[in-house]
């Protein structure tokens, strides 16, 4: 098969633990799995100065393009981790999706219908590129040590962490750690070693992924067909990737034979039927998959924490897998960092499970709904689905029911125990309620145009103050808090103030003069008030850190 990508080969030199006295090798944090999620957690912790050891059993990046669509929020997290820009530069930016029934468009959406955001609704990029950019970033961080061809073969958890057996090309060693973060994918060998369950539904359908290389002038949009003439009775999804690679997902049905369907002599005619005989293409990667929608009962088991596909899995439709995994990393990084630096109790990590299981349930619900629409489970569901598709040609109400996958959006953590509800009598317009992931907005700082999220990316709590209202941060806060002031266009600014050049920031946050937002290190709103109150700030911070 043709390949547009040269896979790097990472070195696996002899591990120093092989020559250490038995029982002496110990690390504060070990992360297992150098996929996008493991790399993100490790980078986040290392950016906080926390020493991390990242282990992976392979010596290259993801083989085959696999994960594909990176949502706006994920790009913003990658910005904070220092590698959003190469992803956007190399990837294919898109916002619009179209759904067709047969040959007719029945539904379309725009992921980002408003201006004033740095990042687009979505960027498509082969997973190997994302991993390579994350590895390059990881190498810049002195606190992060990566080890390839290091396979964890045994795990023994205990109150003070876990003890691992690690197999390498040069021998096997024992390693203790205070905290173990498990990001070893959907089949999670570590989860199996610990005998932990993951529960949910297996979907009885099969899909063929064909990544093809071709010169095509289709727009950078998501196109989804129900019952197209070139693949009758099934669905097809088309996405553009980098390097003139196109991802085509063909629904095959449960009866399809995966070994047969993978063969080029089966795949090529399907693609020809879709693209026509005149368009030359080459196959880059072919795979047949089934999927499950399921999650672990608890993402925290003492000092062992699960993230990404190891903890929860959804169907590819909606692109909620990799995105939610990177959002897990975003949630876990600052919390584990706070515990490791003795600024928060270990119980803060219970909120990692609570918040990310809440997000996983939202993803599971959306994923299950779209999967049920794409692959109806009963004659009745199929009749409903076909009726909706039929009505969608003519009626707007039915178009809204067409579900080929609702694309990934981050969860608003409004039920979280860490979040301080609005005060009675204080009302706000808009979506920036406590628990919400922050909306971006253009600003200028010291005369330079920049973005709000870039200004609150230092990995600490920030107090955003609108207008000139005087604020003095108390000396006895439990963690450092950055103070940033927002000024409207035409107001005087001091060095470092955020000038709201287009009014988006004040509007999106309903930032009337005197309004104050407490923002978490993962850029979620922790609390907000119409006027600064030092006691309220202290209490909200303590709540965000599980100190009360
Ligand atoms: O557009 C979608 O709903 C998801 C596209 C996607 C994501 C990951 C794998 C894959 O084959 C398709």
UniProtKB/TrEMBL annotation:
<keyword id="KW-0614">Plasmid</keyword>
<feature type="domain" description="FAD-binding">
    <location>
        <begin position="28"/>
        <end position="362"/>
    </location>
</feature>
<keyword id="KW-0285">Flavoprotein</keyword>
<dbReference type="Pfam" id="PF01494">
    <property type="entry name" value="FAD_binding_3"/>
</dbReference>
<dbReference type="InterPro" id="IPR002938">
    <property type="entry name" value="FAD-bd"/>
</dbReference>
<protein>
    <submittedName>
        <fullName>3-(3-hydroxy-phenyl)propionate hydroxylase</fullName>
        <ecNumber>1.14.13.127</ecNumber>
    </submittedName>
</protein>
<dbReference type="GO" id="GO:0008688">
    <property type="term" value="F:3-(3-hydroxyphenyl)propionate hydroxylase activity"/>
</dbReference>
<dbReference type="GO" id="GO:0071949">
    <property type="term" value="F:FAD binding"/>
</dbReference>
<keyword id="KW-0560">Oxidoreductase</keyword>
<dbReference type="InterPro" id="IPR036188">
    <property type="entry name" value="FAD/NAD-bd_sf"/>
</dbReference>
<dbReference type="InterPro" id="IPR050641">
    <property type="entry name" value="RIFMO-like"/>
</dbReference>
<keyword id="KW-0274">FAD</keyword>
